[in-house]
Give the backbone structure.
Amino acid sequence: MKDLTKYQGIFPAFYACYDDAGAISPERVRALAEYLIGKGVKGMYVGGSSGECIYHSVAERKTVLENVMAVAKGRATIIAHVACNNTADSALLAAHAESLGVDAIAAIPPIYFHLPDRAVAKYWNDTSAAAPNTDFVIYNIPQLAGVALNGGLLRKMLENPRVIGVKNSSMPVQDIEMWRDEGAVVFNGPDEQLLSGLAAGAIGGIGGTYGAMPELFLAIYRLFGEGKIAEARENQDACCHVIYRMCAGQGNMYAVIKGVLRENGGPDCGGVRAPLYELQPDDAPLVRECTGTIRELIEKYR
């Protein structure tokens, strides 16, 4: 029986870190990893949507993970998202992740072509086979991948002993209950419903806005565990309103988040990679507003 306690808790989805010329910055990757570990998170989810992975080369993705692992050194659980839009590159990244000692790898299904379940299962199993000693997490995000996990496909995947569960970023909380009922552990994906996901049986949360306000999501997780549901709900509502505001800029949400991090004394992660839209001068008041709100909430829920 596997010990899954290392997956219980809050996992910020790691942001892409660029230098001033727009190249991956190993120094900034290490600074962000140290910053998040210092906040007390359980682990980090590296190379996913928040990491702008679909705009990175295989070599860049290796560089990011290598530098996260150089900092983590057993102090945090690391889940490496290794999916590319072809099996060969995905397997290459899976093998590389295992060589670095990550705790788990994860993968979305291939995007664009709508593959049948048997092809998706083969892709995931072939990727997993390249890391034979590493746990595997299915990443279900149908609104972006265009492919939705279903019970039959999950049951087929659970025949693979390395498959432990699902990072579930579909919006229906019912999906968490369904995947859990099939025997999978589930990470809540949508940040706006962490509390609901935990109530539905999620083992923890992986979120793209966690890095901007880790203290608040750690508080939701703690308050839920203490049975203080009303207080946790109030905190969740407050986080949702911050998220809505961070999505309201002219620049991409991750550009706003990186601005908030800088404004809040966190590491400089640079900008975002085109075609994502950079932070605009008119976004400055929004960044200050979100930063101020987060500071106030941290004081309230610390």
In short: The mean pLDDT is 97.
